[in-house]
Structure formats: C-alpha cells, structure tokens
Amino acid sequence: MKTSQGEGSAGTSIARGTEEGLHGAVAAGDSQAPRILLDDAGIRRSLMRIAHEIVERVESPSRLYLVAIPNGGIPLARQLAQNLREIADLVVPVGVLDTTLYRDDLLTTGERPALRRTEMPSAVDDHVVVLVDDVVKTGRTIRAAMDALMDFGRPQAVQVVGLVDRGHRELPIKLDYVGKNVPTHPGEQVRLQAQAGGPPDALEVVVVSRADEERRAAR
Amino acid sequence: MIGRDLLGIEDLERADIERILDTAEHMVEIGEREVKKVPTLRGRTIVNLFFEASTRTRASFEIAGKRLSADVVNFSPSSSSMKKAESILDTARTLDAMEPDAVVVRHAVAGVPKRIADVLGAPVINAGDGAHEHPTQALLDCFTVRREKGRIDGLTVAIVGDILHSRVARSDIYAFSKLGAEVRVAAPPPMIPVGIEALGVKSYTSLREALDGADVVMALRIQSERLTGAYFPSTREYSATFGIDRAKLRFAKDDAIVMHPGPVNRGVELSHDLADHRPSVILDQVRNGVALRMAVLYLFAGRPGGTRRARVNVAAAEVAS
C-alpha cells in the first residue's frame, strides 16, 4: 500500500520519540530498499481511526491509560494521546513498559538482550490500560507486557493496539485495535522505523526478507 | 561480548563496563516499584560462596538475586578449615553437583575465584579476593559517579588510603581508567604499592596535591587488622594527614563528591560529619550496589550454554587419575 503524502489528515508531529531507538532505520540510498507496508500518512490515518475507536469502545474514557511497549510503541502511543486530546478533549497518561525482563525466551537465548526504559507515571489501578505495540506476531511480547503490567497494580481492563498484525499467533492473544492486517511470511521481518530519507519525525512500516536482513548485517 | 565469568575489571573492555552500567540504569527503576521483583531468573539458583566474612556485599547480592526471582543460597564455610586448595576445590565440586546457575565467591586469598571458575560448571562472580579485585564494588562506584556527574570521561578521581592492601582500589583504578577518568592515589608511602604507576595512575604522598581539582574523592577503609607492620605512626596521625574532613575537602573541586566502600571508621578516614552528609554519597553507593548487582546477575547468571559441564568432567577425570 502506497499512499501519497498529501492524504495525511492528522498533520501534527507524530514522534518526538522516534529518536528513541527506531534503530532499524535503513540508510537512505540503500540499494536493497525494503517493501513499505504502511507509510507515514497511512500510519497517521490508522492512529486517528484507532483513537476514534477507543473513544467509542471504552465506557469510561476518563480512566484511559496508554502504555507503550518500547521502542516502536512509544511514538505511536504519544500520537494516540494527542489524537485523543484533539477529538475528545481527553488527557491520557502515557507510560512506557519494557517487557524484556518478562520474556519467555531469556533462558534459551545466549546473549542477554539490552534493557529499555520503563516509566509508569501513575498507578494503573482501576484504569483501562491500552497497550500500544508496533508489530504484533506471536503474541509473546503482549503476554510479557500483561505480566509486567500486573506488577504495577490491578487495571480495570487491558486492551491492545497493534499498528500491524502479522498473524502467526502462538498464544491466545487477540488485538482490540488494529492498524492494518498484513499476511506475511514468518521468516520476514516487519518493523516500524524512521522514514528513509524523510522528515525527522516521519515513520514507516517496512517488510524485510531474511535474505535482505542478512545482507544488511553482513555489511 | 561479555565473557562467562566476572573475575576482575582487568579482563573487561570499556564496552563491557558500559553495558553493565547501562543495564543497571534500568534495574534502578525496579527498586522504586511497590513490587520490587521481576520473574527474569525464576527457577535459577545463585550460590553465595563466602569464605571470608561479609555482611554488606553478601546481602547486596542476595537482594539483587531475589529481586530477579532467583533462589539464593548462602554458603559460608569457615576460612580456617578451607586453607588447603584441595578443600576449596572439593567445596566447589560439591556445589557444582547442586547445579547452580551462578556462584558468587569471596575469599581472603587472591586468585581463588579464578581457581574455582576453572573447575566449576556455573559462571563465577568475584565478590572480592584478597588484595586482588572486587569488581562489583568498582562497578557500583563507577555507576554512582556516572549518576552523580552524568559522565566519567574526563573526571579526576582521587583514591585516598591503604592502596597496598585494597582490592577496591585496584578494581577502581582499572574501572575508572578504562572509562576515561584520571585516577590518582594518595597515602603514606608504605601504603602505596611499588610500581602502581604502571596501572596508569599518578601517586601522591601529599593529600593536598592529590585532591587539587578532583571531582571524586574516594576514601578507603583503614583496616587496622591488616596493618600489623609500621605503615603509619598512629591512627590519629593518619587521620590528621589523610583523613578527609570538610577543611581538606576544600582542596578538591567545589562540587566534588566523597565516596567510601564502607564500613567507615568514623573520625579516621572520614570525619563524622562527612560520613553522614553530602557531599558524601555512601548510602547511594549501597543503594546503587543492588541495581548494579542485579545487572551483573542478569548478564552473567544462568545463560544457556553458560555451564561448563564438559570441563568439569575433564577436571574431575584429572583429579581421579
């Protein structure tokens, strides 16, 4: 899907958070240009629609609490919070919750992954927590995020936003709000990154085949 | 890429040290939660093998392990029955049969953790060996300085006291130097080891010169139990010339911080007032120690393929033959 830049309706800055490690960014001029699944305008449209869906679906929007799963979820959650303020005058707290220490594969992979920041500005008790992730595949990260969340209190309900749902679920996890369903090959890598050669806050979701990835890593 | 054991700072690259400190930065947040526990090392066992008495370091490792959900077992064989190398290795092999995921070792003799690591399946973390190294103390010192000053590169760190007998001094010298700080040592001449300059430090017998322009003043504990020789005429004279108080601290930078690995001999290496109040950060060191040791356990303990059973069998075969 390739939409022209002019179609973006939510023309506000999406991502002061993009510098926070959307480090998969492909250098401009990369000859192995990855396939774009969702461009910046598409991402903004999805996040605006999802904001409307959240307002419609959640019974007590005053109790909303957005929790981003780093790194990709951070700019998305910030944009969702901004959209909620614009369309429903809601001021929604935005937390960041690293799931690394809750992963189920830590004891089976050799090198321990780097930790990312966790920052929960207020208690989650009795709030409707909406977890925000960029790409959802197996559901294992969402499982880890739910466990982590419970260490911070007892939310009234937990819902999940996935900007891209790839399928290939390995756990009984369903998304409440989806930006785009994309059937992909399990071997492909789908990621949110800063738009190659675009303005500093523009994002895109790309799909990279395993062969491309290996070529990239080899360089 | 971090190795299997943490035996000393000497073996670490700058990037390894930074990775440990960065990891500790995130562990701090867990200590600020109401539920101070994450499931990361659930089902893993950490053995604290302390041949030498220790309250603080052992408690710090124990809390760190428990916050990561590991089962922590304290094992403190008496030093006297452990003087022979064979019995140390016997103890290590016995422990190994219990399949721990990490063994934290403290011993009064330098090199024992390395010796144990050579025969043990599990990763070994050195919690202090003789006058050799105390890597987690140096790492928590660096971590504390980085949190206080925002950086380590370009700072001047003055270590004051019994450098000769101090494993903390050695590890601190390696750690701060590798991170780009200028390290100075200051003490009465008998307490400065010959050839210390080879480690890249400047040595001083004048406290005033050593402190001039220092960002960090690290006072070391005067271990009277180890000072049997004539290292200095009297505790009172040591305190008068090398004990840090507010007056002597004026030689250092205005915003200098004061550190001490604890426990403090109040009125000897630090004045009563400095032991308890800013700019000393002694309790921050203790607090940061838990986060730092969580980082070390996260990065070293229970990694798959992190056991050396094959090597143990080889070692056992050698012993049997």
Polypeptide structure, described:
Chain A is α/β, with parallel strands linked by helices. Chain A has one domain: Rossmann fold. Chain A is built from 4 helices and 8 strands, in the order βαβαββαββββα. Chain A has helices spanning 40-57, 73-88, 140-150, 210-218, and strands at 35-38, 64-68, 94-96, 128-136, 157-165, 177-181, 189-194, 203-208. Chain A has a 5-stranded parallel sheet, sandwiched between helices. A 3-stranded antiparallel sheet of chain A has the order 1-8-7. In chain A, helix 1 packs across helix 2 (73-88). The radius of gyration of chain A is 17 Å and the shape is globular. Chain A starts with 34 loop residues before the first strand and ends with a helix. The model of chain A is unreliable at 1-31 (pLDDT under 50). The radius of gyration of chain B is 20 Å and the shape is globular. In chain B, 41% of the residues lie in helices and 13% in strands. Chain B has 12 helices and 9 strands. A 5-stranded parallel sheet of chain B has the order 7-6-5-8-9. A 4-stranded parallel sheet of chain B has the order 2-1-3-4, with helices on both faces. Chain B has 321 residues and is of the alpha/beta class. In chain B, helix 3 (85-97) packs across helix 4 (112-119). Chain B has 2 domains: 9-133 and 286-320, Aspartate/ornithine carbamoyltransferase (Rossmann fold), CATH 3.40.50.1370; 135-282, Aspartate/ornithine carbamoyltransferase (Rossmann fold), CATH 3.40.50. At the A-B interface, loops of A face helix 1 of B.
Helix content of chain B: 40-55%
**Biggest sheet of chain B, open or closed, and with what strands and sense?**
5 strands, parallel
Task: Tell me the total number of β-strands of chain A.
Answer: 8
The biggest beta sheet of chain A reads: 5 strands, parallel
Widest sheet, order of strands of chain B: 7-6-5-8-9
Mean pLDDT across all amino acids of chain A = 85
